[in-house]
Design a protein that fits this description.
The chain is of the alpha+beta class and 415 residues long. The protein is 40% helix and 19% strand. The chain has 2 domains: 2-163, no CATH class; 175-382, no CATH class. A hairpin with a 6-residue loop joins strand 13 and strand 14 (344-346). Helix 1 crosses helix 3, helix 4 runs antiparallel to helix 5 and helix 5 crosses helix 7. The chain is elongated, with a radius of gyration of 26 Å. Residues 391-415 have low confidence and may be disordered. Bound molecules: zinc ion. Zinc ion (ZN) binds at residues 319, 321-322, 324, 338, 340-341, 343.
């Protein structure tokens, strides 16, 4: 499986000029290939690849760029065409693929298989030169390719794609259902409620402040540019904090469970988008949920775990205890109460139990009484101090079926 390593690189002015020249050539080639493809829609990926070789004769400037990097331009074009096709397939209104008319629309140079080398904190790129690199982590595995990119913060980075051997984790014989929420980031069927990280709110306040500041500046002025860069940096910080949290939380679930069941957000968001405008906070949260699921899927692959995505219909409104649907439950109701059987439980906890049941497709005997949640502060996640809940190990292959039901969990506030 592929893993990406990101490292900061430090480049001299002359190298920067070379990279920018290469970016321009790649962008030109991208547009050229797209134009040819537009004129002749029958062209396939191999055809446009051949066009590069032919076009080199007419346009020797292309030879300044490493041949693999040019090949990757073709790859990028076909990757974009494929993504567009997929959107269309899913019923989205999409136009044609756009030309990269500005420098800002083409920001990466990619080397694949050859043309690069790392030695003693130096990255050597064929036709570009030597670049200082800060290797703060050891790269494990074979490097398949490298992408050079200048981010909006004006910092340069190298992304290495590394082929990694999967490392299966020992079986835990434990399964979990996870409800993704706003009140808690995750609420799971073991009674854990992971707090939504507060830094998101804190950083959002800062973002709003800088945005307000920006709106007062004259567009294009030096002050405007300065404030804009500040805004980008705050966003960047938010992203880094968020990613750190998501990596650690997904690692917790992967380490502790063989099977992890969640709702399929692709189905869920389509339902909720109809309700109209989303707040910035909600927007960021939505994006982070998708990222969280992707991290779980990616980590599960390497660890030999299983992630099951289920249809979210009725996960909230169905009583886990007796199965009847309580349609009067409103979004603001934090406690689920079933008038049919009297089951009373935290609404997200009830949802996580339904999610688990739906994912495993097995009968579950519910706990008696009112299971309580263990609230885990996000800071514990970031500092890696979360220990798993005691869950009775299940007999191999029997999923969730437990004759005496799961025990109601004590209410503990950690930290
Ligand atoms: Zn009920």
């Amino acid at each position: 499986m592929m893993r990406t390593y990101k490292f900061r690189i430090y480049i001299s002015k002359s190298i920067q000029e070379t990279i920018e020249e290469h970016l321009n050539i790649c962008r030109y080639l991208y547009n050229y290939l797209l134009e040819q493809k537009t004129k002749n829609p029958k062209l396939n990926k191999g055809d446009t690849q051949k066009l590069i070789t032919e076009h080199k004769k007419e346009n020797p400037e292309l030879k300044k760029v490493h041949s693999k990097a040019l090949q990757m331009v073709n790859n990028k074009l076909w990757g974009n065409l494929k993504a567009l096709g997929k959107l269309k397939q899913n019923g989205h209104k999409v136009g044609k693929l756009r030309f990269k008319s500005s420098k800002n629309h083409y920001k990466t140079i990619e080397y694949n298989q050859s043309g690069f080398k790392i030695k003693d904190n130096k990255l050597y790129l064929s036709k570009i030169g030597e670049i200082s690199i800060k290797l703060h982590r050891k790269i494990k595995g074979e490097i398949k390719g490298v992408i050079i990119k200048k981010e909006l913060t004006n910092k340069w980075f190298a992304f290495f794609q590394v082929e990694e051997e999967p490392k299966p984790l020992p079986k835990t014989n434990k399964v979990v259902g996870i409800d993704l929420g706003i009140d808690g980031y995750t609420i799971d069927s073991d009674g854990n409620k992971f707090e939504n990280p507060k830094f998101i709110d804190e950083t959002l306040d800062k973002i709003k402040k800088v945005q307000k500041n920006l709106s007062r500046k004259v567009r294009g002025s030096n002050n405007y540019k300065k404030t804009k860069l500040k805004l980008i940096k705050v966003y960047d910080k938010l992203n880094n904090q968020k990613n750190d949290f998501l990596h650690k939380l997904s690692r917790y679930y992967i380490n502790n469970y063989d099977k992890i069941v969640l709702e399929d957000l692709n189905i869920k968001s389509m339902v909720e988008n109809k309700k109209g405008q989303k707040t910035l906070n909600r927007h960021i949260l939505d994006g982070s949920w998708k990222k969280f699921i992707n991290l779980l899927l990616y980590k599960a692959e390497g660890a030999g775990r299983e992630v099951i995505l289920i249809n979210p219909a009725y996960t909230s409104k169905k009583c886990f205890n007796c199965g009847c649907v309580v349609s009067s439950l409103r979004l603001s109701d934090r406690i689920f109460f079933c008038p049919n059987c009297g089951w009373k439980i935290d609404r997200d906890y009830n949802a996580s139990l339904n999610i688990l049941k739906s994912g495993l497709g097995e009968s579950v005997v519910p706990a008696e009484g009112r299971p309580l949640l263990r609230v885990i502060p996000y800071i514990k996640v970031i500092s890696g101090q979360v220990s798993p809940m005691n869950q009775e190990a299940l007999p191999e292959g029997r999923g969730l079926r437990k004759p005496k039901g799961f025990r109601s969990t004590p209410s503990v506030r950690e930290g």
